[in-house]
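Working notes for the structural subgroup meeting. M.R. asked for a predicted model of this chain before we commit to crystallization trials. I am recording the input and output together here so anyone reviewing the notebook later can reproduce the run.

Input as submitted:
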Amino acid sequence: MQDKIIALAPAKLNIFLKVVGRRKDGLHIIKSGITFVNLYDELEIKISNKLNISYQGPFKPLKKYYDNCIIRKTLNFLSLDKDINLDIKIKKNIPVQGGLGSASTNAAALIKVLSTMKLIKKKDPKYYSNLGSDIPCFLYNKNCLVMGIGEKILPHYFPKYYFLLVKPNYNNSTKEMYQKLKFKKNSIQENLFLDKIVNKDENIGNDFEKIILKNNTDSKKIFNFLKNIDNTIFSRMTGTGSCFYSVFYKKQDAFNAKKIFKSKFTDLWTFVGENNLKNNNLM
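Returned structure, recorded in token form:
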């Protein structure tokens, strides 16, 4: 068993996101297309004499820990929280509550490391959908279509893109965003098969984007500015927000867009990234 592993946990972007219903247990049914970008949280996990979880980096929690810590939740889900001795350090480079999967990607990275250390047996990714709906896709870690509560995954082709990511000065609670949809339990809008949920035009929107743009003036200004930058293919909000992004075919166009955007919104976090990179997330 390795006594120390460093893992990179990537951010995800929803190329589209639709909510089509709600199950009897209250969980919402989604359909989404997901790609991954080269923005990573960094996890260092090593054998220790006691369990210790610490955070650092630009998006670390202000009080040094999270009340609803995904690492502790994951260990509890795996029945390891009381008898595992690991020192877990996480550098938070991904904005939290931004729709980039900041917590879920940490959970998935931890699960992969625990499997590599042979502390748990490898399971089908859908097993973890009840821990977090995005965790299965992070375990899959390739372009994909996702449906159900996150447990149904199919491989899918998305082109090579370059992205300008933007984080407004507010956070979005996933739970609160879903509540705003007002779906009744045991309801579904349409009967859709996973392999038929994307038409020829990938640019089919995000249901949560509509809510934010209707009710948040600052977000509307950001979104309108992004989609009008030269050479933008399309602009979108990812997940339940709050992050927006614009898409480009050329890296230089993305960097030019960042410069233009920062001249207008000087205080906002931005990042230029790309998808379809081949990498081993365990180092």
